[in-house]
Amino acid sequence: MAFFTADICDEHSDRVSVLGAGYHNYGGSSTCRGEIVTQKLDRNNSDLVSLLRDEDGTGKVVVVDVEQAYYAVVGENLMKFARQNGYAGIIVNGYIRDTTQIRDIPVALYALGTCPRKSIPITAGERQVPLTFGGVTFTPGHYLYADTDGVIVTPEKIA
After folding, report:
1. Are 6 and 149 in contact (CB under 8 A)?
2. What does pLDDT average to over the chain?
3. What angle do CA 71, 77, 96 make, to 5 degrees?
4. pLDDT attached to residue 134
5. DSSP character for 20?
6. Rounded Cα–Cα distance for residues 46 and 77 (Å)
7. Helical H runs in the chain?
8. Which of 46, 51, 134, 152 is most open to solvent, judged by the fewest CB atoms within 10 Å of its CB?
């Protein structure tokens, strides 16, 4: 079933949070929706690699906060893992790379921009914690909807 974030905002304005400007979709799918799974990173994407590679993502969207450090945390390999495990999309409060290669992978990938440098030495991250950026709090278990008009979050599935 198709959805439009603008229609959801119109019909449920009291239950919708809208991600602020500056996030662009670089992935091969123009839309995504699903239950939010969160991952906070600290200068390394190894926890995100494990999540996307090893866990079933059916009906889920991964929201990643890298505190805007200037390096890429998602590229072609992680997008392939996301596709293989059924994730609908990834929202990154940070940067990605391999944009030419990921255009053909049917997973949405919203990020602030691109950076050719990959993440740096292994550090621990936090999983399934509330993340706040772009004027929105992303709570694990809430729902996310994204299309060409933007990214919205609701406490429960509404579309």
Report:
1. yes
2. 94
3. 25
4. 95
5. P
6. 12
7. 5-11, 46-54, 76-84, 99-102
8. 46
Query: Could you read off the pLDDT of 31-40 as tens digits, one per residue?
Result: 999 999 999 9
Angstrom CA distances, 44 to 55, 60, 70, 155, stand at 19, 22, 11, 29
The tally of CA atoms less than 13 A away on the side-chain side of residue 91 is 32
Cβ contacts of residue 93 below 8 Å, gap of 6+?
63, 64, 65, 66, 67, 68, 112, 131, 133, 134
What average pLDDT does range 105-128 have in this prediction? 88
Instruction: Give the span between the Cα atoms of 110 and 19, in whole angstroms.
Output: 11
Which domains does the chain possess? 5-152 (3.50.30.40)
CB-based contact 41:66 (threshold 8 Å): yes
Residue with tokens 């091969």: 28
Structure-token pair, residue 84: 């293989």
For residue 20, pLDDT over 70 is answered with yes
Q: How far apart are CA 5 and CA 3, in angstroms?
A: 7
Task: Give the type of residue at 42.
Answer: D
